[in-house]
C-alpha cells in the first residue's frame, strides 16, 4: 500500500490532523492520506471517569474515526515497525490478515503514550487502569461486582477488604475517578440490603504534597478538603512500593488491605516511538521526540510529530503539556502545515496559551482555573460540564450526553452488571513475604510454577520443604483428591505463574510429553487418587 501522507495514531492529535488535511486537500485526500489507529474510534478521554462511574454510556464518549475523518483512508491496525530509511512501516491488522507494508512520503507521528506499571512490583497484575473505554467499563463492572459479592459475605474482615477501593495518583484522572467511585458507591449502596450499615472505604494515594498540582495549591487544597468531608481517605507524600491481590504496600505507614486498586500513574513513551528514536537517532526530551515549533522533527525532512509523543516547544517551554487541549490544537495546525509543505509554502509555528484547567471531584463539585481566575464548588462543576460538552465531537453525542446528565439529576445510576468476565487460564501474580497462597484442606484450583522468590510448605505449624525458582507444584492435588494437603506461604517477595485447573487438565490429557515431564502416573489421576511422590516431586516441594 502506498500513500503520500501517513498519520500514525488515532488520538486527538492524529484525528484532528487527519481532519485538517482532508479539508485542505479536498477530494484528493482519500487517495493521498492514511490514518493508522489501533481502534476505529476517537475516545474523548476527559469523560472516561464518568463512564466508570456509571454516569455516562460508553457510546457517549466515542466517535467513529471514519465519520470524524471523512475523506481520509482509515486503517485499523497496530504498527509493528517503522523504517525511516526505506520510508515504510509494517502494520499488524489482526488474526486473519497478513502484516501489511505501507509506504509513505510524509510520516506524522501521533502515537501518544502507553501505560507502564512495571516499576511497581505487583501493580501490572493486580491493578486496573483507565486509558480507554474498555478500562472504564471494566472498572465500573468491578466496583458493582464487589458490592454484589460483599452483599453475600458474612465475614466482617473479608467484607471490609472487598469494600476497600484504592486509587493511585492525585492528578486529573486519579481525583476524578476517585470522586466518581465514591459517588457511585454512595448512590447505589441503598439497593444492597445487607450493606446498609457496612462502611465503604475509598483511599486516594498521591506522591506529592497537594492534589491536582496542575490547577495550583489553593484549588488542590480545596479539592482535598471537600473529598475528606465526604469520607474519602487521602494519603499525600506517599508512594506505592508493591502490591498483591490483597494488600497495597507504601513507602510509609501500614499496608492497606484492598480488593480493588486503580492506577492512574505510570505513563510511558510508546514502544514504537522508543524503538524509532533509538534506531534513527532522533533527539528526545523525557521520552518525547523533539520537534521544531512547526512540529517538524528536528533534522528530518517529511517527518512530523504532535501530541503526547512529541516535545513541541511553546511559550518558552521545551515541551507543551501532554493534555487533550494541546493535542487537539497541535493536530489541527499540523494538518495545515503538512498541506503547506506540499504546496511549497512555509509551515507556521505552534502558539497556544493554556486557557485553563478543570477537574470534577464528584457530588456536583469541581475546581477550575480559567484565564487566571479560580473557581470551585457547583459553579466550577457547571463550567466543567459546559466546556467539555462544547468540546465533545459531534452534535449527536452532545445531545446524548445532555440527556444522560439530565437523567442523572433525577434517577439513580444504572448498576446492571453486563460486562462479560473473560476466563484467564494463565495468570502471573506478585506476592509479598508472608502471603498465604492456600491453606491445607482448601480445594485445589491451580497448578503453579515459581518464577521468582521462594515458597515454604507447612503441615500445620511444621515446616515441610521449600519451593525454589523454576519448580512447580500442585499437580498431585489436581490429579488426586482435589484438596491441598499442605499450606503454602511466601518466604520472600515472589512471582507465581498460575495455570487454571481446567487448562491443566486439558494439557494433561492432550500431551504425553507434558505428563512425562511431571513424572506423575496417569493411572492415579484416572482413579481419582493421589499419586505416590516421586523424586522430581519431592525436589519440587510437593
Question: How is this structure best described in words?
Answer:
- By secondary structure, this protein is of the alpha/beta class.
- It folds into three domains: 2-38 and 77-113 and 268-342, FAD/NAD(P)-binding domain (3-Layer(bba) Sandwich), CATH 3.50.50.60; 123-265 and 357-410, FAD/NAD(P)-binding domain (3-Layer(bba) Sandwich); 426-540, Jelly Rolls (Sandwich), CATH 2.60.120.
- It is built from 18 helices and 32 strands.
- The strands form nine sheets. Strands 1, 2, 5, 6, 7, 8 and 20 form a seven-stranded mixed sheet that branches. The chain has a four-stranded parallel sheet with strand order 12-11-10-16.
- Strand 13 and strand 14 (247-250) form a beta hairpin.
- The chain starts with a strand and ends with a helix.
- Residues 521-542 have low confidence and may be disordered.
Topology at a glance:
Layout lengths: L1 E7 L3 H14 L3 H4 E5 L3 E3 L4 H5 L9 E3 H4 L4 E4 L1 E6 L4 E5 L7 E10 L3 E3 L7 H4 L6 H20 L3 H7 L1 E5 L3 H17 L12 E5 L11 H13 L3 E3 L4 E4 L3 E4 L5 E2 L2 E4 L3 E3 L1 H10 L3 E2 L2 E3 L12 E3 L4 E2 L12 H19 L13 E7 L2 E6 L2 E5 H14 L3 H16 L15 E6 L4 E3 L7 E7 L2 E5 L2 E6 L4 E2 L1 H5 L7 E4 L3 E7 H10 L1 H7 L3 H5 L8 H6 L2
Parallel strand pairs: 1-2, 1-8, 2-5, 8-20, 10-11, 10-16, 11-12, 19-21
Antiparallel strand pairs: 3-4, 6-7, 7-8, 9-17, 13-14, 14-15, 18-19, 22-23, 23-24, 25-32, 26-31, 27-30, 27-32, 28-29, 28-31
Amino acid at each position: 500500500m502506498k500513500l503520500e501522507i501517513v498519520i500514525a495514531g488515532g488520538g486527538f492529535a492524529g484525528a484532528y490532523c487527519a481532519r485538517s488535511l482532508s479539508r485542505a486537500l479536498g477530494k484528493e485526500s482519500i487517495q493521498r492520506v492514511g490514518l493508522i489507529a489501533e481502534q476505529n474510534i476517537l475516545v474523548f478521554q476527559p469523560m472516561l471517569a464518568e463512564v466508570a462511574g456509571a454516569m455516562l454510556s460508553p457510546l457517549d464518549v466515542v466517535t467513529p474515526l471514519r465519520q470524524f475523518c471523512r475523506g481520509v483512508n482509515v486503517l485499523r491496525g497496530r504498527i509493528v515497525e517503522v523504517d525511516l530509511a526505506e520510508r515504510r512501516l509494517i502494520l499488524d491488522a489482526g488474526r486473519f490478515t497478513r502484516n501489511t507494508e505501507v509506504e509513505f512520503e510524509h510520516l506524522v507521528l501521533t502515537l501518544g503514550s502507553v501505560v507502564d506499571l512495571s516499576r511497581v512490583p505487583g501493580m501490572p497484575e493486580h491493578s486496573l487502569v483507565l486509558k480507554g473505554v474498555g478500562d472504564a467499563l471494566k472498572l465500573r463492572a468491578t466496583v458493582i461486582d464487589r458490592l454484589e459479592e460483599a452483599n453475600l459475605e458474612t465475614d466482617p474482615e473479608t467484607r471490609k477488604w472487598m469494600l476497600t477501593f484504592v486509587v493511585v495518583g492525585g492528578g486529573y484522572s486519579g481525583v476524578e475517578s476517585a470522586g466518581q467511585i465514591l459517588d457511585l458507591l454512595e448512590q447505589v449502596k441503598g439497593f444492597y440490603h445487607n450493606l446498609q450499615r457496612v462502611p465503604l472505604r475509598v483511599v486516594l494515594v498521591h506522591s506529592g504534597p497537594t492534589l491536582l498540582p496542575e490547577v495550583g495549591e489553593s484549588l488542590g487544597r480545596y479539592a482535598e478538603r471537600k473529598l475528606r468531608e465526604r469520607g474519602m481517605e487521602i494519603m499525600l507524600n506517599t508512594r506505592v512500593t508493591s502490591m498483591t491481590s490483597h494488600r497495597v504496600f507504601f513507602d510509609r505507614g501500614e499496608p492497606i488491605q484492598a480488593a480493588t486498586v486503580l492506577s492512574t500513574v505510570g505513563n510511558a513513551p510508546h514502544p514504537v516511538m522508543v524503538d524509532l528514536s533509538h534506531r534513527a537517532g532522533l533527539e528526545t526530551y523525557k521520552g518525547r521526540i523533539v520537534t521544531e515549533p512547526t512540529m517538524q522533527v528536528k533534522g528530518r525532512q517529511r517527518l512530523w510529530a504532535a501530541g503526547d509523543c512529541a516535545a513541541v516547544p511553546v511559550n518558552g517551554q521545551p515541551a507543551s503539556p501532554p493534555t487533550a487541549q494541546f493535542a487537539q490544537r497541535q493536530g489541527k495546525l499540523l494538518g495545515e502545515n503538512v498541506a503547506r509543505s506540499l504546496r511549497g509554502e512555509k509551515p507556521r509555528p505552534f502558539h497556544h496559551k493554556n486557557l485553563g484547567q478543570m477537574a470534577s471531584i464528584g457530588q456536583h463539585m469541581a475546581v477550575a482555573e480559567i484565564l487566571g481566575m479560580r473557581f470551585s464548588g457547583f459553579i466550577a462543576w457547571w463550567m466543567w460540564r459546559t466546556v467539555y460538552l462544547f468540546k465533545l465531537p459531534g452534535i449527536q453525542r452532545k445531545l446524548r450526553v445532555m440527556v444522560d446528565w439530565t437523567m442523572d439529576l433525577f434517577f439513580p445510576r444504572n448498576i446492571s452488571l453486563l460486562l462479560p468476565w473473560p476466563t484467564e487460564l494463565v495468570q502471573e501474580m506478585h506476592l509479598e513475604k508472608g502471603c498465604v497462597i492456600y491453606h491445607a484442606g482448601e480445594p485445589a484450583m491451580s497448578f503453579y510454577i515459581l518464577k521468582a522468590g521462594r515458597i515454604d510448605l507447612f503441615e500445620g505449624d511444621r515446616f515441610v520443604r521449600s519451593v525454589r525458582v523454576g519448580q512447580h507444584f500442585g499437580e498431585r492435588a489436581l490429579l488426586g483428591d482435589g484438596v491441598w494437603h499442605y499450606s503454602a506461604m511466601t518466604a520472600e517477595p515472589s512471582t507465581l505463574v498460575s495455570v487454571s485447573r481446567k487448562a491443566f487438565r486439558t494439557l494433561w490429557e492432550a500431551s504425553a510429553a507434558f505428563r512425562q515431564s511431571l513424572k506423575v502416573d496417569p493411572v492415579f489421576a484416572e482413579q481419582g487418587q493421589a499419586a505416590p511422590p516421586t523424586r522430581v516431586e519431592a525436589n519440587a516441594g510437593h
